[in-house]
Amino acid sequence: MILSRRALRHLAPLLPLAMLASPLPAQVRPQAPAAAPLPAPAPKYLQTGNTTPWIYRGSDVPRDTEWLFGEMPNGLRYAVRRNGVPPDQVSIRVRIDAGSIHENDNEQGFAHLLEHMTFRESKHLADGAAIATFQRLGATFGSDTNAETSPTHTVYKLDVPEADPAKLDEVFKLLSGMIREPALSAKGLAGDLPIVLAEKRERAAAAQRVAEESRRTLFAGQRLANRLPIGTDAALRAATPASVRAFHQRWYRPENAVIVVAGDADPRALAVLVENYFADWKGIGKHTPAPDFGDPKAPPGADKANPVGETAVLVEPDLPRSLTYAVMRPWRPVNDTIVYNEGLLLDTLAQSIINRRLEARARAGGSYLYAQVNQEDVSRTADATFVTFAPLTEDWRSALDDVRAVIADALASPPSQEEIDRELAEFDVAFASSVEQRAVLAGSKLADDVVQAVDIRETVAAPETVLTVFRGMKDKFTPANVQAHTRSLFTGDVIRSVYVTPDAKEADAASLRAALLAPVEPDGSSRLSASTLSFADLPAIGMSSVPSVVAPIGVLDIGRVQFPNGTNALLWSNDAEPGRVTVKVRFGSGWRAFRPEDAVYAKLGESALVGSGLGELGQEELDRITTGRRMGFDFKIEEGVFTFTGQTRSADLADQLYLFAAKLGMPRWDENPVLRAKAASRLAYESFATSPAGVLERDLRYEKYSRDPRFATPDRAALEAATPAGFRAVWEPLLKQGPIEVLIFGDFDRQQAIDALGRTFGALPARVPIPADAANRRVTVASGGEPRVLFHRGDANQAAAVVTWATGGGAAALPESRQLQILSELFNNRLLEEMRERTGASYAPQVGNEWPVDVPTGGAISAMAMMRPADVPAFFAAADEIARDLVASPPSVDELARVTEPLKQSISRASTGNAFWLWQLEGATTDPQRIRHLRTLLADYSETTPQAMQALAAKYLAGNAPMRLAVIPQGQALAQRSAAGSAASR
């Protein structure tokens, strides 16, 4: 069942939704009238009564009764359930049990190519009509309509908004035609092949080479070793309509298909739709069994005393060092029983203990930047335990010895009960939170969980079942049992390893093999000591205070609270998301706070500020005191403000507020987090140059903001000059500056929250005003002139280009910024049609709209794409032509509707969550116009006219000459013209 290791990989608190808008404030979760029941007949093939549903065969895991399962005579299986999150949406997943591992040698890439061609043209969709058709139904391309191809499956995904019976019937008709009868024509192949090749070409070359060579080494002798979903150029270019159709006929059959539907509709009616459109589906020809994926086997000469098999040293001059070794075992199907899941939980706990020890050693200044142990069932090919770490220097042997020594200690001696209990507390809060929040789980997530369970040949379980299984086996979490499972994790048929290094002289396959075979002494120095920490023992932040103002803001039931020291808070207590509370703290002046010479400390602060501690708590103490609690501590620098964000629950809210307030009122300045952040930045810096995308990650903000030094990624010289003392000198005054706003939205007791605010933020000393020079700093979006040219050291056929038009910023013009979002979506559709669908020059061109709300400048509309160097001028020309046409002629009504309908649906769905409203109202305690602008939010995003779009284009796309930026390979010139004079290589 989907619990244990897979669920526990996501223990980190969730962040607020990054959505854009909401309807007129009225209620938390607007409930539309229930949709009329879909028509009879009743489903014929539901597995009811004493029939064991197909997904539970061989399992004693209690059924999740909210799911209904069916299996049709043709072999197709399905699962349906009602779910109202978000309201009126239905999520559909069609899974085909065929991926890249099912391909023959001459078909490598066909599963993925077929995925593209399925969307291109089919029985009920004309050539190239899919995107527009689904947009008219309110589905956003790329998020609501998407697909994925993995080694083991291909999944088609569709989230349908406002899913009334007529729309659902139409969607199922379209999907059935896509899956059963795609056109697979010569014209379609000619259209999609360039797109797939562009997708392949645009991947970071160095990272892709490492991924391919690592797979060949770690899965040597197995089909997975040479079958990436993206395929090979030779096989793809040799594809014909007949060969792709043969792949489709071999694998796209009802017995290989599972359809999962979860949404705001009668599940029995959903089952009827599945049966109506797929029950008569018949495969062509005889069923083809899946190929033998192969087992990991030790090479000749390897045995239990000498288990190391294939090793490889990959030399990539621009990538940081990393080393992986894997203990490999054959994967076998299992009966997904409770006993089996108890074993998985013990495995997961054993890994958690080792990982905590490895992290403790790294924090203390070890020989590696990070290290992690992770057991994974890989593509039904291997049951493997992976050990991955990043050496800090060329002395990779010492780093390997240090990591192996920590693991050797876990193998030699059982953990303490305190260590076990610490991890159990983390598990318990995660599983209990899942039970609390089950009512707000999105239907799309539930559907994806079933697809994942089918892929790994396991079951699904209700959150209550997961918690019951876990709590019912706590007597099995003994030191001896944990040690036994630790030993099983590091026992296997063969050990394989890959070391990535920038220097060929450091190692070879033989020296790597020898290092893995060398004896190592267990090192228990990173075992956790038995000390207990409690919030009750921590010092008070200051003298507690009571609010000077408590008043409603006039929207929903949201209240404003102000304390005598100037701290403001917005509180909204509601039960829309049971068990979940989101807290956000805004303070200071964000990017405006930094002088050019302080830029390096801004970058380091993003990584090290929280870790440097508070009061009596360093990193280890922060981890310990929050064990078994649902708390977060995310830090971000925004355009005009700094933010702390955490997702918590009512029982932990007071202590969450303490952590945030203590960071401002009693910061600590441990050196190791700063030194570690320096090391991480130093190791990563050179890798940016390996691809156009990396160069953009490094330099785009710097170039876009007129080469403002604050936005330059610190180079090695800047990092070497940075010190912990300098870090403190920059950040200590910034934590004291500027007004504080605290937002608390979710399931909590309002009065208790106010009292906790009084003891924390209300107890802080008066804030220091933001200095005038910081308050007046602005960013300027670059414009005009010849294209700026940057260079990368990756493949010669990779390039990137960006065109940016300056817009504006600030809360006063929020309605116009929302209309700009419509304009950017129009631009995006046209750029996608030109650069992807028509010419195949770029896989995923995109247009984005930025509008900083806290500052009056810095906004921009930016068009961006990856492509061949020769296509950069064509991209610039296409962007210019689209901009000119939007200025010269209004868009058609239909074109506009294809944008506004998906935006309206996205906004309406997002507005059912608390985080959405928090995002809309942050800053409102000092800028009340943000509240006023809520009144027009939905209309601003979804109601406009062609003439209004034309006028907006004239204002922003014609009034400012855009900045053009190209990233091309070193040694090349842009458009056969020397880049001398305008080139900037960093």
Automatic annotation (TrEMBL):
Ranges where the Peptidase M16 C-terminal domain occurs: 240-424, 740-899
Database matches in Pfam families: Peptidase_M16, Peptidase_M16_C
SUPFAM superfamilies given in the database record: LuxS/MPP-like metallohydrolase
Keyword list, A-Z: Hydrolase, Metalloprotease, Protease, Signal, Zinc
Residue ranges of domain Peptidase M16 N-terminal in the record: 86-226
Any coiled-coil regions, as ranges: none
GO terms for biological process, alphabetical: proteolysis
Keyword Manganese: no
Signal peptide: 1-26
GO MF, one example: metal ion binding
Family membership: Belongs to the peptidase M16 family.
Name by which UniProt lists this protein: Insulinase family protein
